[in-house]
Structure formats: structure tokens, C-alpha cells
Specification:
- Keywords: Plasmid.
- There is one protein chain.
- This protein is mostly helical.
- It has three domains: about 130 residues, Arc Repressor Mutant, subunit A; about 90 residues, no CATH class; about 170 residues, no CATH class.
- It contains 20 helices and six strands.
- The strands form two sheets. Strands 3, 4, 5 and 6 form a four-stranded antiparallel sheet that branches. Strands 1-2 form a two-stranded antiparallel ribbon.
- α8 packs antiparallel against α9, α8 runs parallel beside α10 and α17 packs across α18.
- It is rod-shaped and about 120 Å long.
- It starts with 16 loop residues before the first helix and ends with a helix.
């Protein structure tokens, strides 16, 4: 390859850093480096955004490459082409001279070609006696060979980016289709759940994708749809489990309601009415010793629940979750506040087969927070309660009579969980 010295453009065109870098790269190009010109041109086309050239500029580069007769660009050969403006315009599909000059300047600025201007600015070649090229003035294509590896890296990065964006768009389209159909199914089947809120979350995520969406924007949209889809699938899974439980023999027991609220078949033995007072007193004996004695002696006629009902804030949320850890598995986005617990309990009661009427009565009697605590406790007890709906109704009736509070229930669960942990550790 001819080791040309640095050349400056002819006439009023200024020198630039890009020209210097391109000429330095051409000088430093390793010997015996060869590239197929048309494969290289395809790679340049893929890497066009990274190179900062337009499609019209690439049309001019294609025309320049066509003036180099060999199919390969060899770093040891002469890579200067010297077409006239007329011939170059013809091979560039009749591009106007002014436009042609602009795109040639863009190729030079992008470091893809080098101007080898003659003293008078004309393009020509001087040959030796054997007809070989001795000196040529025109456009040097050697930067293409020198930067072949770099251009391939640009193209590979752009291909990977395009593939990632294409996969994200596919993922977004699938999520949108599936979520929309699941919401429609839930509304048609009139399933319980916050479907209106889910629809409101889905509407802004279902807007048409613009071609200008970058990968970051697609990532954010796909992540939001991932979260929404998980929430929808969890709701539908809860209803599916409820349908399965309805089909089982155990479900038939839920229609058998014991009219005796003190019956041990409906209530836990440790929380019958005659033991509820003792348990309630034990829960409060640290701060109300005298009142406890009155309760044990039966000398007071004031309802226990109205006197010693602990507001939900008396039970730290962490204590509730420690006593009833199973409810966390049903949460849409974790349980970090009392509203989260109430929302999750409303979903759990569907799984347990508790009717909306039983739930609403419990909320009216206990308050939403304490009703959620009771449902969490029922879930935690699991198979020990054969009729969760009847159990909740009985506890609600006892609460109205002033003979039930959720405190002893929580303490019993805490002790049971502690014994299980000790058994595992032992």
C-alpha cells in the first residue's frame, strides 16, 4: 500500500480532525489486509447510524466502490478512484452536482474516504511505462479497509440492539393481547376483584407503539406490563382455586351452618364463649388486673368486646404477618400497610369460600382492619376449620355480643408458630 503523506483539501475547503484521523488510520492499516468490497459495503449499511451518514451518502459510496474494478479492497494495492463528476453522478442515479458534493463531504467527514486532491484540484492518474498506476488523485478508499473491524463491531452492536427491540415489541404485544382478553373474561364472568382499577392501569399501557421508541422506553413498558400481567394472573388463579374447592366434597360442608354459635364444631375449642373471656382477660391482664378479676368473677354486665376491644393500631402489622404468614402469598404486591392487608384479605376470602355478605358483616362489626386480621387467622388455621364462612359468621356474632376479640386468636397462632419453629430447629 502506498504510504501517502497527509494531504489537505484543494481550494477553500478546510482541514478537519476527521480528515486527519482517517489519513492516520490509513497509514497505520496492517499489511496484507483484504476485504470484500460489497460485503463491507453491506456492513457499512448496517452500521450507518453509528457512522453518522445518510442513505444518500451511502449511494455515493456505492458509486465510488463501483469504480474500483477488483472485487476486493487490498491494503497493499492502489485504492484511489478518480471518476469525473459526470460519471460519478451517473452511477449515483443522476444525483445533482451540488447534492453530490455535499454527500462526498459527508463521507470524508465520517472518515470513510480520503480526498487525494491534485495541485489543481483535478482528478487524474499518472501511469508508468508498463501501464501501472504511478500516482492517482481522487478519492482514497483505504479507510474502509483500515476500519473494517471497527465497522463490523458497530454493525454487530446495532444488530443486537435491533434484535432486543424486536423481542421487546413481541413481548409487549403478547402481554397486551393476553391481559386484554383476561380482563374481558373476568368482566364477562363477573369475577370479584379490582378489575376497574386494573383496566385503568392497562389503558395507558395499551397505546400504539411508536417507531421512535428506544430500548429504554420499551424496557419500561414491558416491565410495567409484566407486573400487571402477574397481578391479573394471580387474581384469576385465586378464582380458579375457588372453583376447584367448590367442586370438592369439602365445599358441601360450607352449606351446613350450625345455628348454635357456641358449638365447638364451628368455633375453635380454645375460643368458645366460656373461654373467650378468660383469654381476653389474659391478653389484657398486664394493664388491667382489677378488670380481669371482675370478668373472671362474672360480676360485670358490660360487654367484654366493647370494653376491651383493641383498635387495629394496637396490633403492629409486623405482628399480624408473623402470626399469619400464609396471607403474604396471596398479596398482589406485598403487604406493607393496612390497606394492603385489607385488600389481600378480600381476595383470600374468595379462596376460602367466604361469601360477600359474611365479609361485609364482619367489616361492619369489626372494622375493615380487624376483619382482615380474622380472615388472615382463618387462612392460617387451614384445614382445622372446615367451614370458613360459618366460622367467620360465628365470630362476627360473638363480636356483636361483646364476647370476642382478635387478640387471643393472634396469640394462639403466634404460640403455635413458635412451637413449630422450635420443633424444626430441635
Amino acid at each position: 500500500m502506498n504510504r501517502e503523506m497527509t494531504t489537505t483539501p484543494f481550494g477553500r475547503r478546510p482541514m478537519s480532525h476527521a480528515m486527519l484521523e482517517a489519513q492516520a488510520a490509513a497509514r497505520d492499516c496492517p499489511a496484507m489486509q483484504v476485504a470484500d468490497k460489497w460485503k463491507l459495503f453491506r456492513t457499512i449499511t448496517e452500521a450507518r447510524p453509528a457512522l453518522g451518514v445518510s442513505d444518500r451518502s451511502l449511494a455515493v459510496l456505492h458509486a465510488l466502490l463501483s469504480f474500483h474494478k477488483p472485487a476486493e479492497l487490498d491494503s497493499e494495492g492502489n485504492l484511489v478512484v478518480f471518476p469525473s463528476n459526470r460519471e460519478l453522478s451517473m452511477r449515483a442515479h443522476g444525483m445533482a452536482p451540488v447534492t453530490l458534493r455535499r454527500h462526498l463531504a459527508a463521507l470524508v467527514e465520517a472518515g470513510l474516504i480520503i480526498r487525494r486532491d491534485s495541485p489543481n484540484g483535478k482528478r487524474y492518474v499518472r501511469r508508468d511505462q508498463e501501464g501501472g498506476v504511478k500516482t492517482a488523485f481522487g478519492f482514497d478508499l483505504s479507510p474502509l479497509v483500515a476500519r473494517a473491524g471497527e465497522i463490523e463491531q458497530f454493525a454487530a452492536a446495532i444488530r443486537a440492539e435491533d434484535l432486543a427491540k424486536r423481542l421487546l415489541r413481541e413481548r409487549i404485544s403478547l402481554h397486551r393481547r393476553d391481559i386484554a382478553k383476561m380482563i374481558i373474561f373476568a368482566e364477562e364472568q363477573e369475577l370479584d376483584g379490582p378489575w376497574s382499577a386494573i383496566s385503568e392501569r392497562f389503558i395507558p399501557l395499551a397505546r400504539p407503539l411508536l417507531r421512535g421508541f428506544d430500548r429504554l422506553g420499551l424496557d419500561v413498558l414491558a416491565a410495567a406490563l409484566d407486573d400487571l400481567r402477574l397481578d391479573v394472573e394471580k387474581l384469576l388463579e385465586i378464582h380458579a382455586n375457588y372453583r376447584k374447592s367448590n367442586a370438592s366434597d369439602v365445599q358441601n360442608e360450607r352449606h351446613i351452618q350450625n345455628q348454635n354459635p357456641d358449638s365447638s364444631s364451628e368455633l375453635e375449642p380454645g375460643f368458645r364463649k366460656d373461654q373467650g373471656a378468660n383469654a381476653e382477660a389474659s391478653w389484657n391482664d398486664a394493664s388491667e388486673p382489677e378488670s380481669t378479676k371482675e370478668i373472671d368473677a362474672g360480676v360485670t354486665d358490660q360487654p367484654i368486646h366493647s370494653r376491651y376491644k383493641l383498635p387495629p393500631k394496637a396490633f403492629p402489622l409486623g405482628l399480624i404477618l408473623k402470626a399469619c404468614p400464609d396471607i403474604v402469598d396471596y398479596a398482589l404486591r406485598g403487604i406493607e400497610s393496612w390497606p394492603d392487608l385489607v385488600q389481600t384479605a378480600n381476595l383470600v376470602r374468595v379462596t376460602l369460600g367466604i361469601s360477600p355478605d359474611a365479609w361485609n358483616q364482619a367489616v361492619e362489626t369489626f372494622g375493615a382492619n380487624e376483619a382482615a386480621i380474622v380472615v388472615a387467622a382463618i387462612l392460617q388455621k387451614g384445614e382445622a376449620i372446615t367451614s370458613p364462612g360459618g366460622y367467620l359468621r360465628s365470630l362476627t356474632d360473638k363480636a356483636r355480643a361483646g364476647s370476642f376479640s382478635s387478640g387471643p386468636l393472634l396469640m394462639g397462632l403466634l404460640k403455635a408458630n413458635q412451637k413449630q419453629d422450635e420443633a424444626r430447629a430441635g
